[in-house]
């Protein structure tokens, strides 16, 4: 320091270079540059003490020239004036190449992908959804994510857009919407049928002449079931049919009921009367009886006995003999021998009288209650006024035409009787088929209906009594 102050240095220069402050001293005609750091190390004093040539050599060693290079890991040290720069070998980084280079340090992953070091030599890229490839360098096209649904065909328009070609059953941007069958270009309903929606199903309203789920089948005449009442239908041609009617029906479409009398069930010239659609009644001639008048009637068993005027008919083989009542005679008791006292008979007599209550036959062969209004000797007739106001005239010798409305003394098995049916005012002819002490008398009528009666509900149908028997 004293040496410097002795005036050997003619001037002092201070310069600033690369953030280092360097002081240049003039010493013996030479410029001696000493940095602040060198000064702090005492180099200035060293310079004073050492020979100039030796000190200059000491100052002239560059870091890159040192025995131990400042650059590590086989890096190259390059001089830059009084500094150095390390050129790192492959795989190293840092100011002195002291730090190992990792795979992700080179940013191998593209398009903002996230890089992850696997080991010192390997890495993996986490690509965003729009990119793919080892370094996410390849753009993912829209169709690769299978945006089109339900077997639709996908076509890339560009890197960001796509187009779906839907099948006939689907629609929408991605073919996600079901096409209703009625909305398809080709309707499921054939032959000009109307397709009607029923939620996700359809119903075909067929045009006239067609049938089937999709109206694919031509209607045949029998398809409309024109034949009624279980009849069988037969197609004659495309427009015509024929009905095979079941038993009991008739008509073009078997719509008409065959009434019982149309089958001619009544035999031997009997008159058939339809009671309803299923039952009938045969009015037999006097010579026949039975449900269908199939049974021959013996003369004594006829409703109108051959023995007139209450004569009793007795069988004699196929023939008969009449036992005539009082005042009557002849083979059939047809001759009247006494007429006096008829109109003046007492109420307790056994003869019919004017004003007496009777049960008389009407034109339908049914019996109704009434009273006698007239007895004519001249006409041999008797006039009855029924309770409903109707009148009828009968032959006096018709013993079954007018009956005294009187309870019979006795009723026996097989007696012919008349009785009302289920409370009706109309009286029917029948005969006793069973006698019971507890139940009374079971009567079977000409139409085969049966019922039980008490004795006071029955009136004996005369076979041999006088037509004038009293009440």
Question: Would you summarize the structure shown here?
Answer:
One of its GO terms (molecular function) is calcium ion binding. With 471 residues, the chain is mainly beta.
Describe the structure.
It is found in: Cell membrane. Keywords: Calcium, Cell membrane, Disulfide bond, EGF-like domain, Glycoprotein, Membrane, Repeat, Signal, Transmembrane, Transmembrane helix. This is Fibropellin-1-like isoform X1. InterPro entries: EGF, EGF-like_Ca-bd_dom, Tudor. Disulfide bonds join 88-97, 127-136, 166-175, 206-215, 245-254, 284-293, 324-333. The chain is mainly β. Among the domains are: 106-138, Ribbon (Laminin), CATH 2.10.25.10; 143-179, Laminin (Ribbon); 182-219, Laminin (Ribbon); 222-257, Laminin (Ribbon), CATH 2.10.25.10; 262-296, Laminin; 351-400, Roll (SH3 type barrels); 406-464, SH3 type barrels (Roll). It is 6% helix and 35% strand. It has four helices and 41 strands. It has a five-stranded antiparallel β-sheet, with no helix packed on it. The chain is rod-shaped and about 195 Å long. 18% of the residues are buried. Residues 1-21, 54-58, 338-351 and 464-471 have low confidence and may be disordered.
Q: What key attributes describe this structure?
A:
471 residues, mainly beta, Laminin, 5-stranded antiparallel sheet, 4 helices, rod-shaped, disordered N terminus, disordered C terminus
């Amino acid at each position: 320091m004293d040496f410097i102050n002795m005036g050997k240095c003619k001037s002092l220069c201070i310069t600033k270079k690369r953030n280092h402050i360097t002081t240049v001293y003039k010493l013996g005609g030479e410029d001696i540059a000493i940095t602040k750091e060198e000064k702090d190390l005492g180099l200035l004093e060293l310079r004073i003490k050492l020979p100039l040539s030796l000190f200059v050599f000491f100052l002239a060693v560059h870091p890159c020239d040192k025995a131990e290079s400042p650059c590590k890991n086989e890096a190259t040290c390059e001089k830059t004036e009084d500094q150095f720069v390390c050129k790192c070998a492959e795989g190293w980084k840092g100011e002195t190449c002291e730090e190992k280079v990792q795979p992700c340090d080179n940013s191998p992953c593209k398009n903002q992908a996230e890089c992850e070091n696997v080991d010192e030599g390997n890495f993996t890229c986490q690509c965003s959804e729009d990119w793919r490839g080892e370094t996410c360098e390849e753009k993912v096209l829209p169709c690769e994510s299978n945006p089109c649904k339900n077997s639709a065909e996908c076509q890339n328009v560009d890197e960001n857009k796509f187009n779906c070609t839907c099948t006939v059953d689907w629609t929408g941007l991605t073919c996600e919407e079901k096409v209703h069958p009625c909305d398809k270009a080709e309707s499921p309903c054939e032959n000009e049928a109307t397709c009607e929606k029923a939620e996700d199903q359809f119903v075909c309203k067929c045009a006239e002449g067609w049938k089937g789920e999709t109206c694919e089948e031509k209607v045949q005449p029998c398809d409309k079931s024109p034949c009624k009442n279980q009849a069988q239908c037969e197609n004659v041609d495309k427009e015509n049919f024929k009905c095979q009617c079941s038993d009991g029906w008739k008509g073009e479409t078997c719509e008409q009921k065959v009434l019982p009398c149309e089958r001619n069930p009544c035999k031997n010239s009997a008159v058939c009367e339809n009671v309803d659609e299923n039952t009938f009644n045969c009015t037999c001639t006097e010579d026949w009886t039975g449900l269908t008048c199939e049974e021959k009637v013996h003369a004594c068993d006829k409703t109108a006995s051959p023995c007139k005027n209450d004569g009793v008919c007795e069988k004699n083989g196929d023939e008969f003999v009449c036992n005539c009542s009082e005042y009557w005679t002849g083979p059939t008791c047809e001759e009247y021998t006494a007429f006096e006292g008829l109109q003046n008979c007492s109420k307790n007599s056994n003869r019919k009288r004017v004003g007496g209550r009777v049960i008389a036959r009407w034109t339908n062969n049914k019996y109704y209650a009434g009273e006698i209004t007239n007895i004519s000797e001249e006409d041999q007739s008797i006039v009855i006024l029924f309770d409903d106001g109707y009148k009828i005239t009968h032959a006096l010798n018709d013993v079954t035409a007018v009956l005294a409305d009187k309870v019979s003394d006795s009723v026996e098995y097989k007696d012919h009787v008349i009785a009302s049916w289920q409370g009706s005012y109309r009286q029917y002819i029948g005969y006793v088929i069973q006698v019971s002490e507890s139940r009374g008398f079971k009567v079977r009528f000409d139409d085969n209906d049966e019922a039980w009666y008490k004795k006071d509900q029955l009136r004996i149908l005369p076979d041999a009594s006088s037509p004038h028997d009293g009440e």
